[in-house]
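Title: Comparing notes on inverse folding

I've been comparing how different people in this forum approach sequence design from structure. To keep things fair, I'm posting one structure and asking everyone to reply with a full sequence. Here's the target:
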């Protein structure tokens, strides 16, 4: 396996770990009463301005990281497409999936940021 694949896997694992930690840190404490749980389920969560600002900052940081990954993967993808000679390899499929999901995450993150304003 090439070093590019190790870098991509490392970035994905790092982003997952940071995201899970942030989700735990930003999670609001839930009440324990059944009656209050039903009320909370019907109502939309109300977040403090600090939590909203933190979520927005970390969403922007995630988008910057994914954009960097996309910039890193496009030259490798174009090189694989040009040298494939009609044969499909696992590196080509992996890079196509990474670029596709990166574009999807960038689009959804942009929509999320625009909607939160």
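Reply #1:
Here's my take.
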């Amino acid at each position: 396996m090439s070093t590019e694949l190790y870098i991509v896997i490392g970035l994905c694992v790092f982003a997952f770990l940071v995201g899970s930690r942030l989700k735990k840190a930003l999670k609001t404490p839930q009440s324990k009463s059944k009656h209050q749980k039903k009320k909370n389920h019907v109502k939309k969560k109300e977040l403090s301005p600090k939590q909203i600002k933190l979520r927005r900052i970390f969403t922007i940081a995630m988008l910057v990281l994914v954009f960097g990954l996309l910039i890193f993967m496009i030259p490798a993808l174009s090189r694989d497409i040009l040298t494939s000679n009609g044969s499909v390899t696992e590196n080509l499929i992996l890079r196509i999936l990474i670029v596709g999901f990166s574009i999807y995450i960038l689009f959804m993150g942009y929509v999320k940021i625009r909607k939160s304003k």
